[in-house]
Specification:
There is one protein chain. The chain is an all-alpha fold. It has 14 helices and no strands. Helix 5 (about 65-85) runs antiparallel to helix 11 (about 230-255) and helix 10 runs antiparallel to helix 14. Helices cover about 80% and strands about 0% of the residues. The chain has one domain: Na+/H+ antiporter like fold.
Length: about 325
C-alpha cells in the first residue's frame, strides 16, 4: 500500500492527468505558441529562483565537482550509445530496423536541462552540480551528437544551428540564473523562507513541459505512425533502456563513493535525453529521410523518463529532512 501511495501521489496523478489532456486536447497553432511561451517563462523563473537561493560558494563547488561531471558526461555520451548498440539483438525484433535507428539517435543526444534540474531540486539533490552538468551537456551535445550520429548511423550532419542552440540555452538558463544571483542580496532571505511553496514552480515547469511536449507528439502522429505491435515494442525498448541506465547510474554513484545528494544528481542528470534539443537536431541531421521514425523513440522515451523520474524524485524528497538544510557541496 505504501508503494502504491508513493506511485499515485498527487503530483504523479497530476502528471497522468496532463498526459491524458494532451492526448485528447493537444495544444496546436496559437495555443501551442502560447504554451511554449508559458513554458519558457516558467523555466526562466525556475532558474531565477535557483540563482537567488544558491550561495556563490555552492555554485563554485558545483562547477568544480569534476568527478561528478565526468561521470554524468560519460553516462550521456558513452554509456548510452554503447547500450544502444549492445541491445540491438533485443531491440530490432521489438521495433524493426527503422525505429531502431531512432533509438540509436536517442542514445546520441545530450541530457535534458530543465527537467533534470527540476527533479534534482524536488529530490533535494546537489542542484548547483545539476545546473552545471545539464547546461554543459547541452552545449557539448551541439558538437558531440552529430559526431556520434555519424558513428552510430553513418549519417552526415550539419551543426549550423549550433549558435542558435547556444543562444537559446544562454537565454533560458544563464541569464535568469545570473539575474537571480544579482537579486539574491535583496530577495535571498525571502526565497529561503518561502522555499516550501516555491517548489510549486519546479512542479509547474515539469507539468508545462509534459503538456507541450506530449501535445507535439500526439499532433505529429504518435499513435498512428507505427503499428500497435511496434509501438508496444518501442515502449518496452525505451523502458528497458531507461531501467538499465537508472540502475547503472545509481550503482556507479554508490561504487565511486559519492554522497547521497551527488548520487541524486548523477541519477537524474545522467539518465535524461533532451526532446527540446533532439527534435531540431533531427531536422538538420536527417533532411529528406524519415524524420518521424527518428524522433518517435525520443518522444516516447521523454514521456517515460518524466513519469519514472517524477516517482523517484518524490521518493527521495520523502526522506527525512536533515537538521541543517544547507546546499549540497561536492564530495
Amino acid at each position: 500500500m505504501k508503494s502504491l501511495r508513493m506511485l499515485f501521489d498527487k503530483f504523479t496523478l497530476t502528471l497522468l492527468s496532463v498526459v491524458l489532456i494532451a492526448t485528447f486536447l493537444p495544444c496546436s497553432g496559437e495555443g501551442a505558441v502560447i504554451f511554449g511561451w508559458l513554458t519558457n517563462l516558467a523555466i526562466g523563473l525556475l532558474f531565477f529562483l535557483h540563482g537567488a537561493k544558491l550561495s556563490r560558494e555552492a555554485i563554485i563547488a558545483g562547477a568544480g565537482h569534476w568527478r561528478l561531471h565526468a561521470l554524468v558526461f560519460s553516462c550521456t555520451f558513452v554509456m548510452f550509445p554503447l547500450l544502444g548498440m549492445a541491445l540491438k539483438p533485443l531491440f530490432v525484433p521489438l521495433v524493426g530496423n527503422e525505429l531502431y535507428l531512432g533509438l540509436l539517435y536517442l542514445c546520441a543526444l545530450p541530457a535534458t536541462v530543465q527537467s533534470a534540474i527540476a527533479f534534482t531540486s524536488l529530490a533535494r539533490g546537489n542542484v548547483p552540480a545539476a545546473i552545471c552538468s545539464a547546461a554543459a551537456s547541452s552545449l557539448l551535445g551541439i558538437f558531440l551528437t552529430p559526431l556520434l550520429v555519424m558513428f552510430l548511423l553513418g549519417a552526415a550532419g550539419d551543426t549550423g544551428s549550433g549558435l542558435d542552440a547556444v543562444l537559446k540555452i544562454t537565454l533560458q538558463l544563464l541569464v535568469p540564473f545570473v539575474a537571480g544571483q544579482i537579486a539574491r542580496r535583496w530577495i535571498g532571505a525571502w526565497v529561503k523562507k518561502n522555499a516550501r511553496w516555491l517548489k510549486l514552480v519546479d512542479q509547474g515547469s515539469i507539468l508545462l513541459v509534459v503538456y507541450t511536449a506530449f501535445s507535439e507528439a500526439v499532433i505529429t502522429g504518435l499513435w498512428s505512425s507505427v503499428s500497435p505491435q511496434h509501438l508496444l515494442g518501442l515502449f518496452a525498448a525505451c523502458a528497458v533502456l531507461l531501467a538499465v541506465v537508472l540502475l547503472a547510474t545509481r550503482l556507479l554513484g554508490r561504487v565511486l563513493g559519492f554522497s547521497l545528494e551527488d548520487r541524486i544528481t548523477i541519477l537524474f542528470a545522467g539518465s535524461k535525453k533532451s526532446l527540446a534539443t533532439g527534435v531540431p537536431m533531427a531536422q538538420v541531421l536527417f533532411v529528406g529521410s524519415g524524420i518521424g521514425a527518428m524522433i518517435l523513440p525520443l518522444m516516447l522515451f521523454h514521456q517515460i523518463q518524466l513519469m519514472v523520474c517524477a516517482v523517484l524524485a518524490q521518493r527521495y524528497a520523502a526522506r527525512e529532512q536533515p537538521l541543517l538544510d544547507e546546499p549540497a557541496a561536492g564530495s
